[in-house]
Amino acid sequence: MNKKIATLLMALTPFTAFCQQNLKLWYKQPAKVWTEALPLGNGRLGAMVFGRVGHELIQLNEATLWTGGPVRTNVNPHAYDNLLLAREALLKNEDYAQANEYAKKMQGYYSESYLPLGNLTITQQLTDTVPTTYYRDLDISNAIATTRYTIDGVEYSRQIISSAPDQVIAIRFTASKTGQLNFTLGIGNQLKYQNVAVSNNQILMKGQAPAHLQPNYVDFKDTVALNDKPGCRGMRYELQVKAINKDGVVSADANGITVKNATDVTIFLSAATSFNGFDKCPDAEGKDEHKLAKDYLDKAVKYSWPALLAHHYADYHKYFNRVSFNLATLAGDANALVPTDERLFNYSEGAKDPSFETLYFQFSRYLLISCSRPGGPAANLQGIWNKEIRPPWSSNYTTNINVQMNYWPAEAANLSEMQLPFINFIKNAAVTGHVTAKEFYHTRGWAVHHNSDIWALSNPVGDLGHGDPMWANWTMGSPWLSQHLWWHYQFTNDKTYLKDTAYPLMKGATHFCMDFLVPYKGYLVTAPSLSPENSFIDDKGKQGTVSVATTMDMAIIWDLFTNVIDAAGQLGTDKAFRDSVIAYRKQLYPLHIGKKGNLQEWYKDWEDTDPHHRHVSHLFTVFPGHEISPIQTPELAAAAKKTLELRGDAGTGWSLAWKINFWARLLDGNHAYKMIHYLLRLTGSSKTNYANGGGSYANLFDAHPPFQIDGNFGALSGMCETLVQSQSGEISLLPAIPDAWAEGNISGLKARGNFQIAMNWKNKQIVTASVLSVTGGICKLRTATPLKITGVQARSVKTANGYLTGFNTKKGMLYKITGSKI
Ligand code: FUC
């Protein structure tokens, strides 16, 4: 961001009487379990800080440390023949069971897994194990975790950061009395590893990841071992630890680093892997992980703690400080004095705590800045935080909702750069997906299925017939991923990016969809087709999953076609292609309202096997799509609402988060708010629950359960959607503001067209607001009451749904707005 924009942004911050809220997660006791530990990250190096007294545990991750290597080609030469057979079974015979069998024969291999880097332990020699004072926190306005305790009159303090500018994790350990620090540092991992002392204050751990690992749900007994079979060996990794002491004595051997009689010690952790891109063998063609880690470390150790902090804060604040959000609260700052676990418990019990909601909002922004940085891999199912050698669902990328949800809030919450790793992943997936499209479907373009990984796997998973087609064979990855390519353009107005990056990829996904669609009874349909992970009861009373033209398939394709038509129009290019997409879009099997008044999920108005299923895939049309809206398509919006009512409010963490977005788009802020409450229910369970266990852990991580980060990001997106929406060519201010948020202010939210919004509201109506037009263009605002725009001739026009105020903006100009009562 240039200086001028930064200055203008400062001016955006509205003046209010609210106290600046205390953005900390804090606790009165150490973490017993991982979901009580506090996450730090610089996009690449992740740390989970337990804050223990005598035996500190810091669990570590490096974002590129995965099993496996580049994807194979020609994995299933029979796939295409079985596609034709599945189509015949579906379109000629309506034999869904038979189609299911053919679909199994269209499968390739499973994805790989994301791995932990290891554990750092700090064993401290203390005269007592029970401290007289104890405190730990995560300060999300500065991205720093602190643990403080007093024993025998000595206060010990550990502060820890994961620095993006210096690419190390740094821990400053101090004692309030001279020479009282006595501890040993150890490092270990569940992977095979070897520890070596490098010098008298430095050790390193090196190891290698397995060349392949089956997902945990496939073979629970499989042991994790280096796979030496011919071909590409697994990824190498290295962790280097160095202690810099101001006083006392430090020594090191292969077992660890020992510090004696010190007062102030800074510990540096540097790590790297041999990962060298999705298409390079991480062993034979890998990077020099030792040199990478050493170079980061050698550079960082030259800096003092204050210098490290200064670099870290400057970098972090650049992103985090873009948005401020406050809600009026009668409690003032009192709730911030309650420890976060208790606060979450009170909230679960129904306590009103608006500043907890804004803390959660900002925590999700914190998480995105911490787990997704330009140049690194996309945030996976657990962001970058994983302790398991065989993580749930491989901690990979699931493309039928989860990985997209990670990036739903990136643009609106003013963290556009954090979406770049995802865009890079999509680019890679288009490369492997091109081969998949050709080999499995004989189509142009690129195809991606249900799961992917750092290698950009794109084939249908299932190990050649062992996966259930209801998830394994889902085909709509490339069109759904393409939505994010388009959003990034819509929010940035970057035409060069549109022309060189987004459009060619979107066109490739469009080619795949055009070729995959088949004519059937006067329409273009998908066959085989799935509504992710859900099943139906057909006309004959039989349960099925593989069918024709599910609503989600048609909606995702409609979305891509609509976006690519718009993109080609904006670039003034490809007229013939654009015309053909328009013609295809007209023939898509349309949306239907079912007998219960709901939006139909399937080709026919079949019953659901599980009416409360966690996936509400057909409402892609409402969010993240925009085919249905209460303003433009009120009948369909009513049907979507009915669908949500029939589905019920319960679900997994991500399902609850999705429902916040649905209700916001349906302009029911109070129901959206109800879902926020639902998601912010304290749970300690890590036992997989597919039905109704969704909630939040004591460290505010989302609980599927188990932990999945998508719910954190989905909830942030939903909160943004209650405040600003911009999906239909206008910017709606406070479109679904809940009663509980009747008064508040926010600055720095983004809207499509590259506008930055600040608003101050009371009684759910705008008092003052401002729009910063970053790149110029027409701005159309929809509000409940008329607006005045300083220095601009603009009239608010009354419509059936509030007022519309349109005006032309100039690049870099800030427009001040006042609301008026009706
Ligand atoms: C999809 C969901 C599951 C889980 C998994 C990672 O398969 O249906 O609930 O979130 O992704």
Automatic annotation (TrEMBL):
Residues 1-19 form the signal peptide. PANTHER family: ALPHA-L-FUCOSIDASE 2. One of its GO terms (molecular function) is alpha-L-fucosidase activity. It comes from the Bacteria. This is Glycoside hydrolase family 95 protein. Residues 305-723 form the Glycosyl hydrolase family 95 catalytic domain. Pfam families: Glyco_hyd_65N_2 (PF14498), Glyco_hydro_95_C (PF21307), Glyco_hydro_95_cat (PF22124). Residues 725-817 form the Alpha fucosidase A-like C-terminal domain. One of its GO terms (biological process) is carbohydrate metabolic process. Residues 25-276 form the Glycosyl hydrolase family 95 N-terminal domain. Keywords: Hydrolase, Signal.
